[in-house]
Amino acid sequence: MANLKIKKGDMVKVITGSFKGSTGKVVAVNPAKATVAVEGLNIVKRHVKPSMVTPQGGIVDVHKHLDVSKVAIVQPGAKSTKTSRIGFVVNKSGEKSRVYRQLNNEEIDV
C-alpha cells in the first residue's frame, strides 16, 4: 500500500492528460491503487439497477479516479495556480507534518 501525500480536501491541479490545467478539490483518495477523485473532473454516467440505496435506479453521475501522479497540489494564495511538491518534516515535538517544498517548507496543515 502506498503512502500518498495528497489528502481528501486538498486543492489540486491536473498536470497531464485530457484534463490538463484544470483545478479542483479532492473528493476521494484510494491509497491501494494510488488514485484520487477530483471534484468536477472525469465524471461518467453509470446505469444502476433499483436497490435500497437508489430505489428508482436510472443513470447516475460518478467521479472516476485519476492517477495520483497526474495531479499536483496547488499552493495557497489569493489567485495562485502554482503547484508544489509535498514533503514531510518532523517537528521538535516529534510530530510529522506536510510541507510545501516550493515555499521553503511552509506547513500545509496548520
Describe, in plain words, how this protein is organized in 3D.
By secondary structure, the chain is mostly beta strands. 0% of the residues lie in helices and 44% in strands. It is elongated and about 55 Å long. The chain has one domain: SH3 type barrels (Roll), CATH 2.30.30. The strands form three sheets. It has a six-stranded antiparallel β-sheet, with no helix packed on it.
Spans of at least 5 consecutive residues whose pLDDT stays below 50 are: none
State the CATH class: Mainly Beta
Shape: elongated
Q: Tally of extended strands?
A: 11
Mean pLDDT over all positions: 87
Structural class, by secondary structure, is: mainly beta
Helix content: under 10%
- Strand arrangement within the widest β-sheet reads 6-3-2-1-7-8
SSE ordering: EEEEEEEEEEE
Report the CATH topology name. Answer: SH3 type barrels
Termini separation comes to: 26 Å
Number of helices: 0
